[in-house]
């Protein structure tokens, strides 16, 4: 296989990993106003991702770095054209990260509530805008002969982009709620299961619409991997329905696993619908960025391939070890005992 095509799929896998892992972080943050009914329950919710949120976030850095190195033309057009939404995502991630570190620095309710809202907003904004951005990459945007994006922010706020954005927001929200249910006990655990049931119907509706819309978009473009798009979309739909069923049946681990499978195949549906383009042009197909004309030199891709072969297994092993170390539930009793210890 041509290394450029191999790296198209590797970059896709990295973004899949990011959306699965940071996706439930976003969902946990969005669930905070609904599940954090007192300070102890809010700490329960936040502590589910406390040791791992920054590790999950590094996946987007790796994905962005690989995108820059493997497809510099794609990176340049994407980051110049999508500058404002990507900047908003960055600011939201910064606000969320700061909030995790600073909310406990003062024993003042108003201080903590402000940072709680920053966590919620800093989770919802990326969850929405990542979907809008990926949808526009798949659908295509106006690009001129010099590979420059010629649209504006309002160009990106089109029906398909907004629909997929709401879909990713709901999927990440549901995924995070499943994670809270898996990692907590008591009232927070039961409230998370109840919230998951309420989110099920709108999430299924928007996800189904995204899959059907994307399949028709790929078919209209004559996508060579249309069969794979349909297969991945179907798997995502079945996995989502299974996650809803497992949540109703009080099977937290299986609900979370099915939610993760849903996001994996939902992202693959979008990614495979893009192939063999990396950024289609709606101005003229001749101006489109493809895997071939946007990639780096073969030597660069060879070096990157050897680096990935050596370091990616180490990263995966470290991530697996981290999750194993912090695998226990966050119980209300543990937090209450910690508060009593701190008070004395």
Q: How is this structure best described in words?
A:
This protein is mainly alpha-helical and 344 residues long. It has one domain: Formate dehydrogenase/DMSO reductase domain (Formate dehydrogenase/DMSO reductase fold, Up-down Bundle), CATH 1.20.1630. Helices cover 80% and strands 1% of the residues. A two-stranded antiparallel ribbon has the order 1-2. Helix 1 runs antiparallel to helix 2 (39-47). The protein is globular. It starts with a helix and ends with a helix. The mean pLDDT is 92.
Short description:
The longest helix has 36 residues, at 186-221. It is globular and about 65 Å long. The chain has helices at residues 3-35, 39-47, 53-70, 72-81, 83-102, 109-139, 153-156, 159-183, 186-221, 226-248, 252-274, 291-294, 298-325, 332-343, and strands at residues 277-279, 289-290.
């Amino acid at each position: 296989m041509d290394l450029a095509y191999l790296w198209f799929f590797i970059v896709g896998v990295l973004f899949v990993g990011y959306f699965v892992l940071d996706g439930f972080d976003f969902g946990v943050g969005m669930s905070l106003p609904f599940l954090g009914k007192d300070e102890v329950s809010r700490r329960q919710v936040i502590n589910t991702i406390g040791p791992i949120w920054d590790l999950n976030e590094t996946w987007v850095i790796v994905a962005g770095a690989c995108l820059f190195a493997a497809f510099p033309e794609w990176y340049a057009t994407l980051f110049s054209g999508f500058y404002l939404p990507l900047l908003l995502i960055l600011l939201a991630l910064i606000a969320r990260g700061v909030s995790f570190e600073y909310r406990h620095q003062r024993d003042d309710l108003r201080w903590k509530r402000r940072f709680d809202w920053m966590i919620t907003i800093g989770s919802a904004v990326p969850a929405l805008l990542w979907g809008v951005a990926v949808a526009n990459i798949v659908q295509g945007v106006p690009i001129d002969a010099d590979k420059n994006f010629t649209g504006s922010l309002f160009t990106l706020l089109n029906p398909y982009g907004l629909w997929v954005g709401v879909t990713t927001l709901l999927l990440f929200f549901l995924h995070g709620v499943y994670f809270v249910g898996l990692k907590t006990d008591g009232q927070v655990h039961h409230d998370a299961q109840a919230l998951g049931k309420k989110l099920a119907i709108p999430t299924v509706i928007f996800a189904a619409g995204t899959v059907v819309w994307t399949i028709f978009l790929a078919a209209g473009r004559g996508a060579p991997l249309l069969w794979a798009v349909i297969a991945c979309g179907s798997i995502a739909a079945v996995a989502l329905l299974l996650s809803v069923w497992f949540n109703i049946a009080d099977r937290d681990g299986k609900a979370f696993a099915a939610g993760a499978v849903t996001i994996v195949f939902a992202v693959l549906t979008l990614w495979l619908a893009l192939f063999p383009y990396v950024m289609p042009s709606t101005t003229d197909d001749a101006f489109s960025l493809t895997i071939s004309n946007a990639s780096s030199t073969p030597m660069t891709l060879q070096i990157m391939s050897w680096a990935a072969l050596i370091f990616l297994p180490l990263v995966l092993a470290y991530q697996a070890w981290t999750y194993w170390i912090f695998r226990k539930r966050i119980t209300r009793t543990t937090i209450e005992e910690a508060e009593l210890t701190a008070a004395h």
